[in-house]
Amino acid sequence: MSTESRRARTRRRRGRGFATAFAAVLMALVVVGGVGGVVSVAQGPRITDVQVDPAAAVAASGSRVILTTTQSLQSVDPSQVEVEPATPFTVDTAGRSVGVRFTLPLRDDTDYRITVNGVNGLGAGPSSTLTETFRTPPLQAYLMQRGTPEGDTIFRTDLAGEAGLPVFVHPHIEDYRATANHLVVSVRDGDTARVIVADPDGTDQRDIALPGPGYVTNLQSADRGERIGFTFSDADLGAAGGRESRLFTASAADDAPPTEVGLNGGDVRIADYRFVPDTDSMLVLTFDSRLLLTDAQGGNAAPLGSAVSIDGIARGSSVAVVERLEGIREIDLTDGSEQELVRPVDPPGLAGRATPVPGAGAGTIRSFADISADGVSRSTVIAHVDTAGAVRPLLEVPGADTALQTCVSPSGRYAAVLVAPRAIDNPFDRYQLPLPERLLTHLVEIDTGQEIAALQGFNLSWCQVPPQ
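Now predict its structure.
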């Protein structure tokens, strides 16, 4: 046999050997894949990936935990889901994933556990239980001080006040708000008003184009997202007319100029307003005491009677706490129905404004002035009032001090009480929003009544409105 014939036969043997080996490997892969598929179905859906942002979850409502599994899933009902500690949520199912969306911010520095029971794939096979745990970080916030050696300063701080970091400094800061991704700061350069948008660390600053020379007041931000609002008055306002206390809205996320919220009929000057959480609506109180529910353009304003003041709308809620001439009322903004706010049982003094606490049935934070028979203030008690009217004191402010504002943290875990110590010798500054020169923000855990810290400064960033 020739050398060429022997080589050809060798090549044919090698080709048959490779084909046989390849077929064996392919068959093994098919078998393993089939067994894997059978095992997967036999075990029920299992978690392959988890998406969660604990830092975002404590900052704002609407955060989600997404559990991706090995199989396409049948729809998961909210009754199958448990969240510990308990917090309101919604559930959605798409393909191989189930999402749990929190309708309120979560508590800070807390271990959370999500359990989804009885999860079924679309094909045959048993159900399974999905479990995921995560821990939220300690809460941080912004706080402002006027008149520091460097100038008016906005700090980012922990709740103990031990890690304050200056992020924005200016000679004259009137007010500021923190949106989801920006700081929005109202300042004055001499006689000129400016509204500056900056990144959370104070960098990349730019101006919002104001309607003209004038004055900016009542800067507010929406419950989440980038929407802000403010009232504006012309600098040359006088007997000849001009814009006074007109409401404008803008987005901190783009360079579009502010939009005026137009109101028809009666006085269009704005005494107060609030963004309605998780909607595009605003609750507006005009100078002539009209209470209106409107969109961002103001063209579809719905009248809600008259009012004296807007006390607040809790995050994640559509119920506004409003003071009318006949007393404090709760108004459901989805249908206009209302009822009297529960009256405190055995109040420790004359009841003041009510700050609603986030969460269904969470009650309110109220101030009570203890005044002697001869009109001398003995103290102010800041207390939690539950839905049955039971009063639980949180902080007692001495009569020589003045409680200026109460705010509640996004999750409803803490109350922040702004206090001016020794009001009689604590002079006001000369700002457009004048405040006593010495201010302390007391932080109290609502559930326990424990005071966490007393921070020097005011305007803690979870306060959605300026001191009033």
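Residues 18-40 have pLDDT under 50 and may be disordered.
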